[in-house]
Specification:
The complex is a heterotrimer. Chain A is α/β, with parallel strands linked by helices. Chain A has 4 domains: 90 residues, Ubiquitin-like (UB roll) (Roll); 72 residues, Alpha-Beta Plaits; 69 residues, N-terminal domain of TfIIb (Single Sheet), CATH 2.20.25; 183 residues, Rossmann fold. Chain A contains 13 helices and 22 strands. Chain A starts with a strand and ends in a 5-residue tail after the last helix. Chain B has 3 domains: 211 residues, NADH-ubiquinone oxidoreductase 51kDa subunit (Rossmann fold), CATH 3.40.50.11540; 91 residues, Ubiquitin-like (UB roll); 90 residues, de novo design (two linked rop proteins). In chain B, helix 2 packs parallel to helix 6 and helix 3 runs antiparallel to helix 4. Classes of the chains: A alpha/beta, B alpha/beta, C alpha+beta.
Chain lengths: 478, 430, 154
């Protein structure tokens, strides 16, 4: 545990730390591009320089092991001058694309330029021209002129996703980031993380391209429901104060993009591509009206009818959603226990060709809360549902259950979020909210509990499942 | 002869590079001696000799070897740097073509000292005859039992492989060289860790220049003391100097350190072509600072003397420049070279080389601006000590050296939009 | 490149175990020698044979100036244009070669006979100017000598 001195202040460093790590950890900010806490050291941007006290030169801090008694300065005149020069070099051939670049507003180069350089270019030679809008894969677009060759993306594909899908070709100022020629980047289930870690607007997400300026968006902390890993995510959507009236109202309740939220306990700074495509799940056509055998009714009427059906039934079976939050599952237990034989289902399964499980993040169980469903309702509830011969009521919660398997004579109460033919066949259909419309928690496969916050308001004609179960809870147990 | 010879001390014939001729000259006796010494004793002898590296950095060889921890249970590697890419340098080629066994014997001795089982020679891809000569010598050496499971019947095993480069100057930089030996782009690496701690595939590795290693056999055979009899106390031995440019008798000469530079230039090498006067020399490859004719006059050829004059031995590639040579155009050729060779990893070099090249192209095209000279100084300064490898620094030294001594030519070019000397690079037209 | 594998297997014997990646440079050179350039299926084959990622080989091919992924002329005429050679008439030589052969520097003649390019320092400054034709150094060149040389190269 060496003691080092940063700007004269004593800092307790860890044994194998670098000066950069020790400085960042203790609130002495040093700017950097190519370093990343989860990747190997590249040491190529040369921005993170510090001055050893008493010397008149600078060294990069990201590759400087700490040693007892070491003294460095992070903001001396020499450091400031060198940093300014490095930023001049980085912007030497960088196109002034800010006006059309998606990264504007969250661009490290912009931020550092303001903070550490702030001057126009002193160059009067023409900039190096290069390829722009290179379709690196179906999901990622590359602008080589903006690329500062920090190599974070390359290291990600070598060290984290291990797809080896990216590399740097040619050399010098003609160096070009390129994808390997056999399409491996398209097959990299984690490819889009390189868009997050790119410090500039060189790597951009095609689905998000030119969709919105980031300063109109706000990130809401959530949990990805695509598998039982439960990665922490940020769901980005328009800030309330920017809900523009003359826009299609759908824009105001749309998911603009999904990015990882760094959670060291679960996913670190990464998510898989499927998590980025949550809009494909959440923005399917919604069921927004309660129905009785297809006939639209008020929500309260539907809930009342459901209560009556439950009270009047003898043999009740419930098939519970593994997408229910911990809170919803608890409320369901209150309502169903003692009255229903309860099973839970996998609402969603892997699609054809979808990667199942790996040793990074992906889990074969494509549902977020199987663990809580199992602990709430017991191991027996994990089995495939069985219907005793005299089953007269089945409550189905969530999607993914084949209604053809239901006993012909049983009445059906169906709680669902999306438009589906089954909605009209159910004796009682109650439209319920989705994850983005409420707060809650999921328990992942390893027992870690993570929380999500609401991004949007639910429609008034849609119920929260937790409230529905609370309404159904009171009543005779037989 | 510019002093006494240690390496070029035999007549070159049609067979002088063969094993038979080498043995007849006393070859592989040093190896026999080394096999009876401990690794530590071999290194001690090399330390005692004061041998300095001949690749450009002039680092004490024994000290480099001493960093490698013996008996640490992991493989060590020895890589010979035969990349010889520094413009003006062609002396390692002489050894590869005419004395390949001297190199091989020295490598075996070094391998024994460093507990190396596998040796590599990294040779620039453009060398054809040097490659064929060395490859043939290696086969002779294997057949003669000098390489393989039992070197000269001992229990010391050693294998050797030539890895040929493919056109990249920075593969002459030790860590860039290792990246290439590893089968990747020739990207130099940051230090720490030093290559002698984590080198080839993260194992302790010594990278030495061809000529550097070729001194080892003699040091072991005749002893450190004998070696120190040549040259100067802090700079013992000799240097194979490649001399070229506007000189009457270009070629490779073995110069004993301390030899008077004037004598070398004007007696041994025949003076300037076309009967012209000397303008300046670049003493050790283009990355060393230029010395004017006046500065050259009192100098002896050795580390101390050249450093005191503000330059250095470098790679021993001496380029002689006659009067009437346009230094602006000369720098243009150099900056184009550095721009072409930058690997592109780190910001100051990748961007700076292109920038300097564009500036000087503009000056030569008659569109120079007042700020250009200061700009070239600034970019050079910003590459000094801030880059991953020494190439950024080298380009800076070349630029600053020429600007310092010949600023007037640049000012003239900018102001008059043409060269003071007609843009001339040649001393005599063919 | 599969027919070259037996040769590669022989080379492997002098490499330490686990050094497959080190064989990239020598194997690529041999493949190029054999085919005249390195094809995409060669990259696949070599990647599989050595167990190195395909991208590593793609990077190597694009980084080093001597490797190529498309064929060039039968005779590759490379003139050094670095310091000493330029001081000994290389610039005039380069212009002359381009004019005589009838293509710009960097191009190949339509009949596939010559490719004309420049090189950086070839390590032969003592015999400048130097022209490299395929693998061979032609030293102490002059316009007359280059004329004779080019005429002989069919």
């Amino acid at each position: 545990m060496p003691e080092i001195f940063i700007n004269g202040q004593s800092v307790q460093a860890e044994d194998d730390e670098t000066v950069l790590q020790a400085a960042l950890r203790t609130g002495h900010y040093i700017p950097y591009f190519c370093w990343h806490k989860s990747l190997s050291i590249a040491g190529n941007c040369r921005l993170c320089v510090v001055q050893p006290e008493g010397k008149n030169w600078v060294e990069i801090a990201c590759n400087m092991p700490v040693s007892e008694g070491m003294r460095v300065l992070t903001d001396s005149d020499i450091v400031k001058k060198n940093r300014k020069a490095t930023l001049q070099f980085i912007t030497l051939n960088h196109p002034v694309d800010c006006g059309i670049c998606d990264k504007a507003g969250e661009c490290t180069l912009q931020d550092y330029h303001f903070e550490y350089n702030g001057e126009r270019s002193i160059s009067d030679v023409p900039k190096v021209k290069s390829t722009k809008y290179v379709e690196l894969s179906e999901r990622i677009v590359l602008d080589n002129e903006r690329c500062i060759l920090c190599s974070r993306c390359v290291r990600f594909t070598r060290e984290i996703s291990k797809s080896n899908a990216l590399g740097i070709k040619q050399r010098g100022d003609e160096s070009l980031l390129r994808a390997v020629e056999d399409g491996a980047l398209d097959r990299d289930a984690y490819s889009d993380n390189v868009v997050d870690i790119c410090p500039v607007g060189a790597l951009l997400s095609k689905p998000f391209l030119h969709k919105a300026r980031v300063w109109y968006l706000k990130p809401t902390r959530s949990v990805c429901p695509s598998c039982s890993r439960g990665c922490a995510i940020d769901i980005w959507h328009r800030k309330p104060e920017w809900k523009l009236r003359n826009l299609d109202p759908k824009e105001n309740t749309a998911i603009a993009r999904v990015t990882p939220h760094d959670n060291p306990e679960v996913n670190g700074p990464w998510i898989c591509n499927k998590g980025r495509d949550l809009a494909q799940i959440f923005e399917r056509a919604r069921a927004d009206g309660a129905m009785l055998k297809g006939k639209p009714v008020e929500l309260s009427a539907a809930i009342e009818m459901a209560r009556r059906l439950i009270d009047g039934a003898r043999q009740r079976v419930a098939i519970v959603s593994s997408w229910g939050s911990n809170e919803e599952l608890a409320a369901a237990k209150e309502a169903l226990a003692g009255r229903f034989a309860t099973f839970f289902k996998a609402d969603r399964v892997a699609e054809e060709g979808e990667p199942l499980q790996d040793d990074l993040l992906l889990r074969a169980d494509k549902n977020p809360n199987t663990t809580a469903a199992r602990t709430t309702f017991g191991d027996a509830s994990a089995a495939a549902p069985t219907f005793p011969a005299d089953t007269d009521l089945v409550l189905v919660w969530g999607e993914g259950f084949d209604f053809a398997r239901l006993p012909a004579k049983a009445r059906i109460i169906f709680l669902g979020s999306y438009l589906a033919p089954e909605n009209g066949h159910a004796d009682v259909f109650i439209p319920i909210s989705i994850q983005t419309e409420r707060a809650g928690h999921y328990t992942n496969f390893a027992g870690v509990v993570s929380g999500f916050e609401p991004c949007f308001a639910k429609a008034p004609s849609v119920a929260h499942a937790e409230a529905v179960f609370a309404s159904l809870a009171g009543g005779p147990r037989s | 002869m510019p002093g006494r010879q240690l390496i070029m001390n035999f007549p070159v014939t049609a067979t002088s590079h063969t094993l038979a001729d080498y043995v007849a000259r006393g070859g592989y006796q040093a190896l026999a001696k080394a096999l009876a010494m401990t690794p530590q004793d071999i290194t001690r002898e090399v330390v005692a000799s004061g041998l300095l590296g001949h690749g450009g950095a002039a680092f004490p060889v024994g000290r480099k070897w001493g960093v490698v921890k013996l008996d640490d249970g992991q493989p060590h590697f020895l890589c010979t740097n035969a990349d010889e890419g520094e413009p003006g340098t062609f002396k390692d080629r002489w050894i590869l073509e005419h004395a390949p066994h001297l190199l091989l014997e020295s490598m075996l001795i070094a391998a024994r000292a460093l507990q190396v089982r596998n040796c590599f020679v990294y040779m620039r891809g453009e060398f054809d005859l040097p490659y064929r000569r060395l490859a043939a010598a290696i086969e002779e050496a294997y057949a003669g039992g000098y390489f393989g499971e039992k070197v000269c019947g001992s229990d010391f095993a050693c294998d050797i492989v030539i890895i040929r480069g493919a056109g990249s100057y920075v593969c002459g930089e030790a860590s860039g060289l290792l990246s290439s030996v590893e089968g990747k782009r020739g990207y130099p690496r940051n230090r720490p860790p030093r290559l002698t701690v984590k080198g080839l595939f993260q194992r302790p590795t010594v990278v030495n220049n061809v000529e550097t290693l070729s001194n080892v056999a003699g040091i072991i055979r005749d002893g450190a003391e004998a070696f120190k009899q040549l040259g100067k106390p802090k700079c013992p031995g000799t240097q194979l100097v490649s001399i070229s440019g506007h000189i009457e008798k270009p070629g490779v000469y073995e110069v004993e350190y301390g030899y008077p530079l004037q004598k070398f230039l004007f007696d041994d090498c025949g003076g300037i072509t076309g009967g012209k006067k000397l303008k300046c020399i670049i003493p050790g490859g283009i990355s060393t600072k230029v010395l004017t004719a006046a500065e050259c006059e009192p100098l002896t050829y050795d580390k101390e003397s050249l450093e005191k004059a503000g330059s250095s031995l470098g790679s021993g590639g001496m380029i002689v420049i006659a009067e009437d040579t346009c230094m602006v155009r000369l720098l243009q050729v150099m900056l184009r070279f550095y721009h072409h060779e930058s690997c592109g990893q780190c910001t100051p070099c990748r961007e700076g080389m292109g920038w300097m090249h564009k500036i000087i192209d503009r000056i030569v095209a008659g569109d120079g601006r007042r700020e250009d000279i200061d700009r070239l100084y600034a970019i050079s300064a910003l590459n000094d000590g801030t880059t991953i490898c020494g190439m950024g620094d080298a380009a800076g030294y070349a630029t600053v050296g020429i600007l310092n001594k010949y600023r007037d030519e640049f000012e003239y070019f900018i102001e008059h939009k043409r060269s003071k000397l007609g843009g001339n690079l040649e001393a005599v037209h063919a | 490149m599969k027919h070259l594998i037996p040769e590669f297997e022989q080379w492997k014997k002098r490499f330490p175990p686990g050094f497959e990646s080190s064989l990239v440079m020598p194997c690529v050179r041999r493949i190029q020698e054999d085919r005249g350039f390195v094809a995409s299926e060669d990259i696949d084959g070599l990647s599989t044979y050595l167990g190195v990622p395909r991208i590593q080989i793609e990077e190597v091919l694009s980084y080093y100036t001597q490797f190529r992924r498309a064929p060039i002329g039968r005779w590759h005429i490379q003139t050094c244009r670095n310091v000493t050679c330029s001081m000994r008439s290389a610039e005039r030589l380069i212009d002359h070669i381009a004019k005589k052969v009838g293509v710009a520097v960097g191009e190949t003649t339509p009949d596939g006979r010559f490719t004309v390019s420049t090189a950086e320092c070839l390590g032969s400054c003592g015999t400048a100017p130097v022209v490299m034709v395929n693998d061979t150094y032609h030293e102490n060149m002059s316009i007359e000598k280059i004329d004779r040389l080019l005429d002989e190269l069919k």
